């Protein structure tokens, strides 16, 4: 019996000394920067003010973002701060959910346009995650976008003056915003009458900053800003391999795009012939004035068709096959529009039946996409399905616009848009599995958190634009496109649907910001290109198909920078989303100086039956091997059981001799 007790005690000793308890390693880092904002005076004008931004990251965490402001901000900062944390985690190469993020803004005045500080918030979070220094003489303004680009903001002249007031040496502004527009009241006296009028004055911020002793530096994205803030310790990504990889993918997709060109050209030709066959009959059925109006409309449409076909043939000749297909698609919209006008004149029931058919096609496509989604899906297929659903829901929006429109011209135009958009959605379905070799499969549930971020950000941008609506001109046509998609996104229930429409919404929201605050679209195109190339370097070989098509479109339509801006903005948002999904599960590394002190209980044998414990503090590495600890424990328990059984089995029964064996 004494031997059995000894074995049990020794086994217990083995168990307790080889098992290190699980622990939660902790990273907790703080960063502080001074930010600039504007506050509104009683007379309605704006003046620059400063505020203090304190951030902290703690890991491990759950992806929570905590924000406090003092005094309370007029805008909800939760969405933009969440985007800042999301971008920072991507810069650090970790899963956003691996840490928690805290931001505190204190100011002496209520600030207007709080999201304009989200760019520097992303910089501060990234610096904390990467343990980088931050220069105290650098100040920044700009709204962070999900792709890491620094979006345009208002009130730059006032903010520059505030930066100069605290002795800043560098003032970082969004790319393309080295000029600001201020509105001044001019007094003019004509005899006894005093006339007041408001005039726009363009301010060269670089020159004005030089006179104030501040260097104004435009930055395209968080990578460039972080390099300046860290004094060069952080280096922005080199973009040498991404372009070659995209070009290689493009050549592999050319046979598919060639087939698209042929298919759309065939559709264009069919609708042209069908329209020609009823043109004369339709016009003869109208009154003279009606016929003159319709004939003039048809002539304008036909002129546009000819221009588009000519442009498409040019792209085709240059080997830009997706750009050619896209331009033939635009021609398809116009030939359908022409046909619908003529057909509705000769057949009053045609538009109703066509509307029904398009609506049925939309629902069939949505069902087809949903049925093709399994529990796990590659990033490349997420890209394709997002494009399919974007086109399907565009068709849905245009179909509703057709139903609510007054007059033949608008009704048939939106119906043609809806029909053509649904047609190209089916073409995109053919690209499933055609991207680069998938390196990552995700659960569709992983998209849910990104959808929430997109929803919050679009709402925040909407509020931000309205905050400046009294002093700037908002492009209503672009903003309405954004708002229609935002409203639709909020009504959808499926996360993949919301994700697809949300990306389109962000593209239009970004275009609204650029049109509102930036004087030159070309600057925005350059900034977006820089951001896209940086993101592609992080993605490495997991490049989705739409990278090829949107970059080709942007190159083909270099003469239309507004169109380029939308295409690149949407692509950049999409790529950043893929990168977030790539980092699911990746934890932050711990530096050599940051280790966790863990307490382990060690058992020491004093006698065969008496034990005591002592506390020993040991330094543990960041990652513990829980599986190894469990394995060791199980082995120890097995040893105890085996030894105990051995004693029982080999114990000599009364009245018998003992046999000894060796191994």
Give a description of the structure.
- The protein has 663 residues and is of the alpha/beta class.
- It folds into 3 domains: 2-22 and 595-650, no CATH class; 27-179 and 209-229, 2-Layer Sandwich (Ribosomal Protein S5, domain 2); 242-582, no CATH class.
- It contains 19 helices and 15 strands.
- The chain has helices at 2-18, 78-92, 118-130, 156-165, 205-212, 222-229, 242-284, 288-317, 321-346, 350-372, 379-404, 408-429, 447-467, 476-491, 495-517, 521-539, 545-556, 561-582, 626-650, and strands at 27-40, 46-59, 65-70, 100-107, 138-140, 143-144, 150-151, 170-174, 179-190, 193-204, 215-219, 376-378, 441-443, 596-605, 611-620.
- The protein has a 4-stranded mixed sheet with strand order 1-2-4-3.
- The longest helix is centred in the middle third of the chain and has 43 residues, at 242-284.
- The radius of gyration is 33 Å and the shape is globular.
- Mean pLDDT is 80; it is low at 2-24 and 592-663.
